[in-house]
Amino acid sequence: MIETDGLVHRYGEATALDGVSLTIDDGEFVVIAGANGSGKTTLVRHWNGLLEPDAGAVRVNGTRVDADLVAARTAVGMVFQEPRDGFVAPTVGEDVAFGPENLGLSREEIEARVTDALAAVNLDGRTAARIDALSGGERERVAIAAALAMRPDHLVLDEPFTGLDAPARESVLDRLRALDASGTSVVVVTHDLRDVLAPADRLVVLADGSIVVDDTPANAIERLDGLPVERPC
Ligand SMILES: Nc1ncnc2c1ncn2[C@@H]1O[C@H](COP(=O)(O)OP(=O)(O)OP(=O)(O)O)[C@@H](O)[C@H]1O
């Protein structure tokens, strides 16, 4: 479970999150939407301790993030918006293997996870490819595979569909649905609500650092008029 309680975040004088309370239950699929600058990325960056609250608290699986950063980062897998420059190795296979290697898993288990994660993003057999030779969309898929290979309790993806073509998008969505069905919580931050609402349990909309809608997709859709969120077509 990810619990966000009265979270305030300021950048200098500007308030990016103004007392946000939101709980993501185990196994939930939650979509977070909102206009540019509404605070979506700031919110999710708190979930694995990349930012410190000015007020309020964040707990992951019952433990405050600031009390155990390693536990939070193991439990919450994050995939950030393109461009991603956080690749840790020159090739696809090495990059995706890096996280599982740090968990001290057996070579067999690491290879199985890398193979499985790359298949999930339609990059089967590309382990030897150099990351600096990939397209933006392929890099995004490597980033998603690296997060999948960690098998986190909660997977958070910030604008994961940017740069993905239709087959890659469909493949990633299929995988997210399967993960969710297997008990992993999935949180997708996106401007693009196409397809992603079907598997979602909830749609949360942020505006100016506050939650303005938090409801089932069917109910939330009725309340999007006048909000800076595009309706799915
Ligand atoms: N590092 C920073 N320094 C100063 N202000 C920042 C910083 N990061 C974000 N902000 C500001 O905080 C507010 C919230 O930004 P945030 O990136 O969380 O919004 P967002 O909803 O994710 O936007 P987008 O959809 O454009 O990614 C915005 O006004 C933004 O300009």
UniProtKB/TrEMBL annotation:
The answer to keyword Transcription regulation applying to this record is no
Q: Could you tell me the keywords of this UniProt record? A: ATP-binding, Cell membrane, Membrane, Nucleotide-binding, Translocase, Transport
List, alphabetically, the PROSITE patterns matched: ABC_TRANSPORTER_2
Output the Gene Ontology terms for molecular function. Answer: ATP binding; ATP hydrolysis activity; ATPase-coupled transmembrane transporter activity
Q: Which residues form the ABC transporter domain?
A: 2-233
According to its UniProt record, where is this protein located?
Cell membrane
Q: How does it sit in the membrane?
A: Peripheral membrane protein
- For the keyword Nucleotide-binding, the answer is yes
Q: Which residues form the signal peptide?
A: none
InterPro entries to which the protein is assigned, alphabetical: AAA+_ATPase, ABC_transporter-like_ATP-bd, ABC_transpr_CbiO/EcfA_su, ECF_ABC_transporter_ATP-bd, P-loop_NTPase
Summary of the function given for this chain in its UniProt record: Probably part of an ABC transporter complex. Responsible for energy coupling to the transport system.
Question: Can you tell me which family this protein belongs to?
Answer: Belongs to the ABC transporter superfamily.
Q: Per its record, how is this protein called by name?
A: ATPase component BioM of energizing module of biotin ECF transporter
Taxonomic classification, please?
Answer: Archaea, Methanobacteriati, Methanobacteriota, Stenosarchaea group, Halobacteria
